[in-house]
Amino acid sequence: MSDDDTVNVIKPPDTLSSKVSKGGPGAVDLAAIERAESVIANMADDYLDWVEDDLVKIANAQKELKANRDKSEEYLDKVFQVAHDMKGQGGSFGYDLMTILGNDLCRFIEGKKTASDVDIEVIDLYISTMQIVISKRMSGDGGPAGNEVLTGLAAVVAKITS
Asked: Is residue 1's pLDDT more than 60?
């Protein structure tokens, strides 16, 4: 550093604003955003029907996994796919716990080629927990009960996987 106390302020050119259009084609249409939000809000009631169907699908995939251990990778993938769909939809429709559970289940299954007895038990726990969240209509983060559900599930999973 120099002993000179003079400050030299460098003001960079504002080239970004010349590259971004305001209004016109490609601009953000606030009315379109409002319409989309309205459609999503109206679909929220349908979410509970969809997630009930997904709970049946994931339970059936789990039954197939248990019955076809020689095809574990195929049925683990089916469980993963349904859990992934549930993860994506949960937060969109106000069921953040479903997003968390779906994500955690996906991370648990990810990369597995076979399913041990412990793996099957953990997957069962996640599916049962998802069923409870929906049956109790634990929307949002579920509040204190949601926190207890996640903490309890994590403790049980840690215990049986250790």
From this structure: no
- Domain coverage including residue 144: 48-161
Q: What is the mean pLDDT of residues 40-62?
A: 90
Longest CA span, the chain:
79
**79 is a domain residue:** yes
Residue 9 resides in a domain: no
Q: Into how many domains does the chain fold?
A: 1
> 47 exposed, middle or buried (CB, 10 Å; 0-12, 13-18, 19+)?
buried
Q: Is the pTM of this model over 0.85?
A: no
Give 70's DSSP letter.
G
Q: How many CB atoms lie within 10 A of CB 42?
A: 9
